Every structure is written in C-alpha cells, then in structure tokens.
C-alpha cells in the first residue's frame, strides 16, 4: 500500500508537509508549485486521498516540561540553545508551544495534558513521572534522558560515546592516572521533588572505561552540583587526596571546568603540562580561558529542533513506533589537552 512517506519521497518534501497539505492545513506556508507537485504525485501513485479521509487532527500546541529552572536556563548555554531550537522549529512549523512548566520554579499537578498535541520533556524525570505522563498523553518526546525504559521518542547527545572517546585519547597519549569531576543526575517529579542519582551517564562511562582497561587502581571521581563553585571545591578535594596527582582530568561541564582552572592555578599547576584537562559543552568562555579549554561540543539547538519534529510526526499520525535519535558530538581541541592524533 502506498503511504505518506512514499508520496513525500517522490515529491521531495517531508512526510509532515505531505500530511498537512493533503489535510488542507491553512496554517502551513508552502509554495503553490510544491502543493501542486504533492497532489500530482499522490495521484500518480494512486494514493487514495478520499479513502484515507484527511481530516485535520492537529491539536493546538506542544507542551514543554523542563526540569531546569528559568534562572539556570538563562545562565546555562546548553539549555538556552536547546530552548532556542524548540522555539525556532515550532515557529517554522507553525505550531503553538505556549504551555511550559519549569519544575524547579513552579511545580504543579500535571492535568489536562491530554488536550495537548504532544509533550516534550527536557531533562531527567522519574520513571513514575514518565508513566504518569503517558497515561495522559501518548505523544511523549523525552530530551536528554536516554536511561528511561518506557517506549517513547527520545533525542539526546551521544555523551557516553564521546566520554569513552576522550578517555581513549588520554590513554593513547600515555595517561593512566585519569580522574573525573562531574555532577549528579537529578531526577524530578511533578511536585518538584528531587532524587539525587550518582549514576550519571558521563561518570558511568568513565567508571566502565577504567574497569574495562584494568585501570581501577587509578580510578577516582568526585561529584557535586554542575556549577563553577563545585568545580573549584571538588578540584581542591582531588588535589588534597591524591598522591601523586592524576596526569589527566575529564570534567563533566565547562562551568565546572572553569572552577577547576581556578584551583589548579592556585596550586601553581600548569594546565596542559602538569595535568591535561578536557570538558563538555564548548561554551564561549572555554576559548577565552588560559590555556584554552579542550571540550566536547554538543549541538543543543539541533536537539531541540529534532524534538519538535518528532512531536509533529506524532501529532500528524505519520508513525506509531517510537524513535530514538542520537546526535553526534565533536571534540574541540585547545591547549589544555592536545592529543598526538585524532
């Protein structure tokens, strides 16, 4: 049977565009030539428009539930870019996104979510919370929480793979005493309740790597909040408790790495010589540090846009099966760690 994807492929447009054009969706802005081509292709492929009963089923908007507070989002480049991606793609596809819950700021009972076309969850929420959401709305897209087991759409950056890749580069460059400083995973529920989880994906990848390479004797890690202040504090703990010091350090985020820099310089340790440092996020400040910070770049805006597209596919009933999208990351090399080869 000929389907929407067949028409979309032949007309060289997206399945969502085909669905909305054939639905006579007046909110979509598509060139007349494109609309004409879609109908011509549908006719040529014997796609029975009347039989499929194209009735506009789009609900008014996408809801967003975020575990990040508005204040934290404004200061965190990653989440600021992610939100920008969500909004830009929603505007491009002409779908509302006006119900936004920041659980850290204004926790409330989740209700009437079945009135939304789809729900995008940003951050880590509890397993029970995912179950509660699914009971109200099956069109659920989860961002940055690859550990959940329920069958929902997911999109996230491939942090575990890149964590192992950076650790492999440390090892190939002769470093065995490798330490990790990062943050806890914080799982939230609809009431704003927090569960501290030490099994965050980057530290998990670090521990597995050290074990897999028989480096358990050199394994040491410190966890706290994802802040510059905790980066500074945990680096102090690392220095005070390590003899000898690690020769390489992986940090879970650039803001934490800035705090690590302060501590290392206070102890007159030459970053890039006495100790190699790599981090995650590639915020603007990373390039201004001395020496420049080697860091993993994550395309947060693309992740946000992908989440909206997945939501629209669900709303337009293009597919029923859940999809998992893993976005690649890349290492931006600066003076804090320059591998011999990449």
Word description of this protein:
The protein is an alpha/beta fold and 342 residues long. It contains 13 helices and 14 strands. The strands form three sheets. Strands 2-1-3-4-5-13 form a six-stranded parallel β-sheet, covered by helices on one side. A six-stranded mixed β-sheet has the order 9-6-10-11-12-14, sandwiched between helices. It has a two-stranded antiparallel sheet with strand order 7-8. It comes from Enterococcus mundtii. This is HTH lacI-type domain-containing protein. Pfam families: LacI, Peripla_BP_3.
Q: Reading side by side through the largest sheet, how are the strands ordered?
A: 2-1-3-4-5-13
Query: What share of the residues lie within helices?
Result: 40-55%
What is the oligomer described by this structure? single chain
Q: Runs with pLDDT <50, length 5+?
A: 52-59
Mean pLDDT score, rounded?
88
Total number of β-strand segments?
14
Q: What kind of sheet is the major sheet?
A: 6 strands, parallel
Class based on secondary structure composition and strand pairing? alpha/beta
- Note the overall shape: elongated
Instruction: Give the N-terminus to C-terminus distance in angstroms.
Output: 47 Å
Rg on CA atoms, Å: 23 Å
Helix count from the secondary structure assignment: 13
From N to C, what is the helix and strand string?
A: HHHHEHHEEHEEHEEEHEHEHEHEHEE
Q: How much of the polypeptide forms β-strand, as a percent range?
A: 15-25%
